[in-house]
C-alpha cells in the first residue's frame, strides 16, 4: 500500500482521537454553558466527523483504484466501509446534539476499527514488489506522525531524542521516519490512557 494512503489513515485516526477528546470536553462543559452554545459545539463536532467520513471515503476509493486493489486489499476496503457506516452514525448522534457516552462510544469504535487493519497500520508489515516490507525512498528527516498537526496540546514540544533499540529483533525494520513517528504516537497513547 502506498505510504501516502497509510499516512492519510493515520491522520484520520489522529483527528478522530482529537474529536473524541473534544466531544468529552463538550460533554463535561454541558452543564456550565447555555443549551444553544452546547448545541452549536455539537453541530461543529458533527461537521468535523462528516469531514473525516469524506476523507475515509476518498481513501477507500484510492485503495480501489490501486492495481488489483479490490483483490489485494478487500479486507481493508470492507473495514473502511464499516468505518464509514459508524462515522455516519456518529454524525447523526452528534447532530442531535448528543455528546455523552453514545457519541464517545461511536468515536471509540471508529478508532478501534482504524487500528485493526494490519496493512494500513504501519506496525503490521505488508508491502510488495521486489522488496516486500521495504520502506519508501523519501528524504524527509521529520517523523511521519510529527507532520500530523497540532492536536489538543498546543504547547507540546516535539523533540527527536535519538532513541535506538538496545536489544532484540522483533521483525522487519521500518524506515526511520516511520519508527520515530510510531514510537511517539504509541507513547502519546500510553500517556493519554494512563
Comma- or semicolon-separated keywords:
194 residues; mainly alpha; 6 helices
Note down, in words, how this protein is organized.
The protein is mostly helical and 194 residues long. It has a domain at 3-124. The chain contains 6 helices and no strands. Helix 1 packs antiparallel against helix 2 and helix 2 (35-65) packs antiparallel against helix 4 (74-95). It starts with a helix and ends with a helix.
In terms of topology, how is this protein built?
Blueprint: H1 3-28, H2 35-65, H3 69-72, H4 74-95, H5 101-116, H6 176-193
Helix pairs in contact: 1-2, 1-5, 2-4, 4-5
Task: Give a summary of the structure in a few sentences.
The protein is an all-alpha fold.
**Whole-Å distance between the termini?**
33 Å
Q: Give the uncertain stretches in residue-range form.
A: 121-151
Number of strands: 0
The backbone outline, from C-alpha atoms, is: globular
Proportion in helices: 55-70%
Strand/helix succession? HHHHHH
Q: Helical stretch count?
A: 6
Computed over alpha carbons, the radius of gyration is 18 Å
Structural class: mainly alpha
Strand content: under 5%
